[in-house]
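User: Please predict structures.

Assistant: First:
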Amino acid sequence: MNKQESAALFAAIKENRRKLDACPRHLFDVGEPPYQFGQKVTCAICDGYMPVTDAAQYARGYMAAGGNPDDVIKNFYGPDYSHDAEAVTCPKCKGVCGVETSPGDWFDCDFCDATGKIDRHEALLYLDNEKESKA
């Protein structure tokens, strides 16, 4: 690789990074498995590209922030999986199945029916309502 080719490659890398950084939310079509080692995927919104493994990690981070990974990669967990129905720790009782209203006075959590788990969708609605009530 000569100096001009090296400069052109570096410019292309910088342009791709600019596209990815400016994108409000990526949307990838990763196709059907099996995936090839080092396979790149392109965002339908910004036209930036990244390895398919990085796109999967982006989707997992999007989910950790409260989003649905299917908004980033269609059928992220497969066509028969519902992300909204995924059980998560109850945000009201924090998974202990009860709430202490005063020292030593406990009652079963009515939000999760004392199971400590609730659908992700319901948990996110609860957290949004709590945030709004504190604002």
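Second:
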Amino acid sequence: MNHDRVVEAAVRTLAPYVGRNMAASAVRMHLAKLGLTGAPLTEAHVEQLLAELAPALCVFVGRAKADDVLAGVREALRNDRRNSP
């Protein structure tokens, strides 16, 4: 998957809950922590990213809502792949 599209989908989905700046910062920081900056990402990489984001997201919205939000990131990425040329 395209790195920038993954970042944008994650930020777009997380932003309503934590704000755009915090979402962007968290996504970029966790990708860097995982050593995944700029490279194409696999589904396994995306799952690693979501696992890294989950604990802090739980603090903001609770576990059940965090699970829903992370599922929303997965859905946004599926839609992006379907709609990309």
